[in-house]
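Notes from hallway chat w/ T.B., transcribed later so I don't forget. T.B. wanted the structure written out for a chain they're using in a teaching module, and asked if we could keep both sequence and C-alpha cells in one place. Agreed to drop them here.
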Amino acid sequence: MKKIISVVCLITISVIVMFALKGMSQAKTIEAQSSTDSANKVVVYYFHGTFRCFTCINMEKYSREAIETNFKEALQSGKLEFSSVNVEEHGNEHFEKDYQLYTKSLILSLVKDGKEVKSKNLEKIWEYANNKQEFIDYVTSEINVFLKDSQ
C-alpha cells in the first residue's frame, strides 16, 4: 500500500512539474513577443497622490476617455499604453524625480527600442480641467504628435 501511494505521489509531482515548466516556457515566449512588439510605443502616465479631489479624479477620467475613444487600435496593438500611478505608493517615488513632478500630472513618454527617448508634461490639463471637450482635444492632439514620433 505504501508503495502504491509513493508511486501515485511521484507521478502526481512529475505531472505538476511538467505543466509548470511548460507554462514557464509559454510565458517566456509571450514575454519575448510582447517586448519585441512594443519596443516602440507611447506610454501615457497619470500621476496622482493618495488624496484625490474631484478635479484630479476627473482629469484621470477625461484622460482615459480621450485615449480609449480616440486610440483604440493603438491601445490594442500595444503602441499606446495608459497607466494611472500613485506616486505615494512604495516603489513609485522615483517618478517624482524622474519627471520633476510637483502636482497631479499627465506625462507622455516616447519609448523606442525599450528606452524612453523623450517625455512631455501636459501641464495645460489644469487649464482645461473644467472643460471636458477642450481637455480631451488637447490630450488627443499631444498623443497624436507622440505616436507619429514613435514610427
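Follow-up for T.B.: Residues 1-36 form one domain. Might be a good example for the class.
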